[in-house]
DNA polymerase Y family protein (Pleionea litopenaei), 521 residues
Amino acid sequence: MWLCVRFALLPLESLWGHSETTPVAVGEQQRLVCCNALAYQKGVRPGQSVATAYAVADSLQVVERREHLEQQQLKKMALQLYPFSPVLTLWQPDKLLVEIGRSLTLFHGLDPLLSRIRSAVAQHHMTACFGLGPTPKAAELFSYLSLSESYPLWNTEQQAFDNKAFLALVDLIAINLLPLPEKLIDKISATGIKTIGGLRALSTAALNKRFGRELVLYLQQLTGEHPDVQTCFQPQIEFTQSLEFIDVIHQREALLFPMRRLLEDLIYFLRLYQKSGQLLRWKLRDSYQVASQFDVHLSDAQVDFNRFLELTRLQLDSVNLTGPIEWLELSMPRLVDADIQEQSLFSRSEPFNDELHFVSKIKARLGYSSCLWLVQKNEVIPELSCSLLSDQPSDYSKQRKSQVQSRRASRSLNVSSSTQQKQSLQASEQNTMMLDGDLLPQQKIRPSWLLPVPQAIGRTPERLNWQGKLRLVSQPERLFHHWWKKPVSRDYYVAQHESGIFYWVFYDQLKQGWFVQGVFS
């Protein structure tokens, strides 16, 4: 079973901003291709010349046809219908052929399936005509009729088409609906034949002799006597969509309406293919043909329409518009597989996602380089053990989520164990750092803050000086590393400043000097 979805107003509906309060028509080579309902009420018809249409409706707005936008919209609608059947074909210029016979069981019958398809089409505000048939060409031909005429051909009990009723309906169709060359249609009309039934009444040899092999092959494929192999639609796993406006947009706030439409398409695409990304790329072109773009950086790969829109709005405020905007494009480079997270029914959202969203908002306001990420490295030397990045590495989000989960798990311990931990921690702190002047035990003590570059300490025979007097209050900790390239040999101490602040200092055995490495909180 084949379903044909014909988008009757595709040249008009592929444009953004067509108004139902103004008569609008799409023209090509001084001929009208289609028009909206208001223009039709005023007497405008497809096929009229532009001059005739202006004479009929002086307030008519004629827009030049843009076939590349039509094909983009047709592929977009193919993505919407792809979940209903993997056997889907694009028929130029405005039709989709969907093989739905093998999807009836999955969607519990023909009526629920048609209802789902209608909803998917209506969601994108597209005008569609439907036709059901046992062959692709029959479904296409029936799309020019009412669905109520082709729907009864399907026998629900037998799960098959009524062949006799099918051929009877085919015979009644006028030949001017056949998708054949205009010269061939005129040639057939000149013989006095008005319907397909008149053609089928002739023998194959007579048809071949008088009208050629093209007509014979079409009729055989129409009735199923000859195979009609279709090329299946293969969706590309990438997202780039654009909108071209009928009326230019002058204000930033007005741009948010078409941006919402593109973001909705992006969300559907990402969920359909279980993809995500961390960059939204917006491109603009004004009426002076000046192109510009801005990027919206995402600190995580979460798919969230409201966040995408909020960050786009923040970034748009800093964009300098050089003129009225007539074209808009959205793309998401570097798509990655979505990280599917299984959550319990009553689980709450991770606080880490809120942290990352806050970072994204800061970047949108102050620029991409306004936030830096502190990332740990597998290095023994303190100043090399971490680094600052303008964007987090790919596994950083997973590490932070793991840390958040660990903290949440630790908070779920009972009160008694929590009290024991506090008592143990207090005893450890008392044994670790004694502030009465005695030396600290030889343990690995690390400060909260490390200086980017160790600072040299002045030294006299009696004491160490660094913005005041320093006094060593711990035993030394030896660090020897990088012996294979540039050796590092240091003795680390905890030193107390005369103001009471504790510093992490070391004596460099190779440079024969003292340095400050960090500060304890």
